[in-house]
Amino acid sequence: MDGAISHSIEGPKDGKKVFRKLGTCSRTFFYILNREFGHLKELEERAADSLAGGIMQEGHQCGMLWGASLAVGAEAYRKCKDQNEAIAVAVNATQKLMASFSERENTINCSDITHCDFSSKLSMAKYFFSGRFLHCFNLADQWAPEAVRSAIEGLSNKEIASTHECLSCATEVAKKMGASDEEMMMVAGFAGGLGLSGAACGALSAAVWMKSLMWCREEEKKSPLKNPSSKKTIAKFYQATNSKIVCSDITARHFMNIEEHTKFIKNGGCSELIETLAKS
Are 258 and 87 in contact (CB under 8 A)? Predict the structure, then answer.
């Protein structure tokens, strides 16, 4: 990590260029942080397309956050002694990313940033013809160095290294879907609506990404942004939650820390939903 920290004093300056090349905000930031850490993961990065536009273009948390969280989860897996520590570190690093992003944009949600309903052709046309899409490219340029610094700060915080059991709803879903240990840790920071923020469900995003990862292994070139498997997962999720998607609405609580979230999961919280997502 010392080399990465030294290399990242100023941070990457090609966020806009990478965004234009890769095509989605989520994939862009998964790639940028992976590159910074020295571990590119092309297949996993491509699968992150499905989280663009706020989870399959539904307007929830910005894809830049989902992509960056996947990258810090992967780095936590590499640098931590066990899964408990990796989950705690991934959640902490995700929280640092969220704070940095929110400070810049005063929101974490795609719809607030883009002013676009991606399900509407008229709204999408307005998004492009008005030039609003340029804000996203500029944001990628401006936030990339801050994202790297926030990620490194979150990953380097020795005080949060856990000696206790830590669970993440997102990791539990991924595990039930056959994820590798590394893939389970990649999504760990999604816990509690991404970094315990209580926003749109992190377990759902983990399932969507896992479905996309499976899809990408079969489809070598196509983007998984609209793959039917992930769409099916979202449909089943809404059926199970009576159309709720916000973590704090589904759980009727806000998690103050990873210990509270772990206790909730251990006591069976969201167990049926996790099972539904895993089987979707």
Answer: yes
φ, ψ of residue 77 to 5 degrees: the values are -60, -40
pLDDT digits (tens, 9 = 90+) for 90-120: 999 999 999 999 999 999 999 999 999 888 8
Residue with tokens 């020295």: 38
- Determine the Cα–Cα distance for residues 196 and 95; give it in Å rounded to an integer: 8
**Per-residue pLDDT for 4 more than 60?**
no
Q: How far from 78 is each of 72, 83, 116, 170, 178, CA to CA, in Å?
A: 10, 10, 37, 18, 20
- Are residues 200 and 61 in contact, defined by beta-carbon separation less than 8 angstroms? yes
Terminus-to-terminus CA distance in the chain, angstroms?
A: 38
Residues 209, 168, 89, 49: what is their CA dihedral angle, to the nearest 10 degrees?
A: 10
Which residue reads 């998690």 in tokens? 255
Average pLDDT value for the chain: 93
